[in-house]
Amino acid sequence: MTDPVEIPAVPAPLRWLVAPAGHRVEGPDRVTVTAGPRTDLFGDPGGPDRVANAPALVAALDGDFTLSARVALDFGATYDAGVLFVHVDDGNSAKLCLELSPQGRPTIVSVVTRDGVSDDCNSFTVDPDGVRLRVTRTGTAFAFHADTGDGFWHLIRYFALKGPARVGFLAQSPTGEGSTVRFTEITHTRTPPKDLRNGE
Length: 200
Hints:
This protein has 200 residues and is an all-beta fold. It contains no helices and 17 strands.
């Protein structure tokens, strides 16, 4: 068990599932996470390949909640990403990513992994400046949202994962030599949006 990481904006201690190449807590609502080369968390649905070496920092948050952050990184290689992460166990998790697509465009991507097999859904391309990501738990369901800078929270995905989940931050560089992700303006609330689909 790793030593806890304290970020005042998150109301529970965070711990590393996989240690990073480096990290810094830079204030009450900021953390920077560096992923090393060839790091990812993905189980290929078309084959046996599974990679689970991306650094992930997670906390157990009770009840309904919303956790959000502004996410930024200097893209160096395809699939470099900053991620809000939901973790149940080694075979069951979910990622909401600001990721560099194979076409070289920053893209909102979501991935849900069940029993070690991942799906992969590209939603839309974005101007990477000003992107905020958000994960909400309400009852037994999770919702992923993205705000591209206009204040409207776009629903990216609505799904369930069985079992107690921990939530936090992940950095990845599946094809590259590493990536440093800046999570800022981290906020937590125990009052989820009343309507997950109206942009609030």
